[in-house]
C-alpha cells in the first residue's frame, strides 16, 4: 500500500510552521542557525532610541528582581 506525502502543517512541537520571508517587515541584518532552527534578526526589531533602550533595561531589571524574590521566598527557612 502506498503512502502519500503531505506538506507539514505543524512544527516539531506543534508550533505552526510559517514562512520566515512572509513575516519579515525590515531588512535582515543577521541570520543564525541553532540546530535546525534559523534565527533571523531584522532592523525593524532593533531598538534605536535612548528612551526605548532605557525602558527595556528597566524591564530586564524588574524581571531579575522578580526572579530573585521568587527564589528567596522558596528557600526561606531552608539550610544553605
Summarize the structure.
The chain is 38% helix and 16% strand. By secondary structure, the chain is an alpha+beta fold. Strand 1 and strand 2 (37-42) form a beta hairpin.
Descriptive report:
The structure is a single chain. This protein has 80 residues and is of the alpha+beta class. It has helices spanning 20-23, 50-75; strands at residues 28-34, 37-42. It has a two-stranded antiparallel ribbon. 0% of the residues are buried.
Radius of gyration: 21 Å
Shape annotation: flat
Order of helices and strands: HEEH
Put simply, the count of helices is: 2
Low-pLDDT stretches:
1-10
Q: Write down how many β-strands occur, each being a DSSP E stretch of 2 or more residues.
A: 2
Largest sheet features: 2 strands, antiparallel
State the end-to-end CA separation: 63 Å
Amino acid at each position: 500500500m502506498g503512502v502519500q506525502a503531505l506538506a507539514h502543517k505543524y512544527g516539531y512541537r506543534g508550533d505552526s510552521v510559517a514562512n520566515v520571508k512572509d513575516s519579515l517587515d525590515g531588512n535582515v541584518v543577521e541570520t543564525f542557525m541553532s540546530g535546525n532552527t534559523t534565527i533571523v534578526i531584522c532592523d525593524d526589531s532593533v531598538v534605536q532610541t535612548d528612551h526605548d533602550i532605557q525602558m527595556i533595561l528597566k524591564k530586564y531589571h524588574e524581571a531579575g528582581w522578580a526572579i530573585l524574590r521568587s527564589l528567596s521566598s522558596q528557600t526561606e527557612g531552608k539550610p544553605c
